[in-house]
Amino acid sequence: MRGCIFCKIVAGELPSYKVYEDERTLAFLDINPINPGHTLVIPKNPDVRNIFDIPKRDWVAMMEVVHELAAAVEKALDADGVNIMMNNREHAGQVVDHPHIHIIPRFKGDGLQLWPHKKYKPGEEGIMQKRIQQALAT
Ligand code: AMP
After folding, report:
1. Is the pTM of this model over 0.85?
2. Which candidate in 38, 67, 98, 100 is catalytic?
3. From the CA of 31, how far away is ligand 1's center (Å)?
4. Catalytic: 117?
5. Distance (Å, whole) CA 26 – CA 5
6. pLDDT tens across 46-94, in order?
7. Closest ligand 1 atom to the C-alpha of 34?
8. What domains are defined for the chain?
9. Which residues' Cβ are closer than 6 Å to ligand 1?
């Protein structure tokens, strides 16, 4: 038990606007939404921090909830789409050290520009492909 902010929300020690709860997961509104209705889905497991240490059963439970909630959030907000995002570790933008998936409702013309893309240097795609395949194999 680490007592992070989200563990305190699970334990009822901090308030939140819960939208869904089951044995393994909790979903609640993000306190500083990118758009209203921005929802976070977390595992209740207090001993995990990110995608790298989450047990598969908690991950699968989160994915099932994200699948249901993405549709519910879009419908409830009459949105034009949703972004599903997860930041893992500090340099990927993770601020709260407890796994969480962002469901962000999006609206035509909302002006949010996510993820500027880069171009590969010549030959770089093949190098990346091999490195990732090798990492998978070990
Ligand atoms: P991340 O940058 O992926 O770690 O996102 C953490 C998110 O948690 C941010 O979008 C915050 O606005 C949100 N957040 C932080 N504290 C709370 C809280 N007490 N209740 C709801 N959302 C929170």
Report:
1. yes
2. 100
3. 6
4. no
5. 13
6. 999 999 999 999 999 999 999 999 999 999 999 999 999 999 999 999 9
7. 10
8. 5-137 (3.30.428.10)
9. 5, 14, 16, 30-32, 40, 87, 93-96
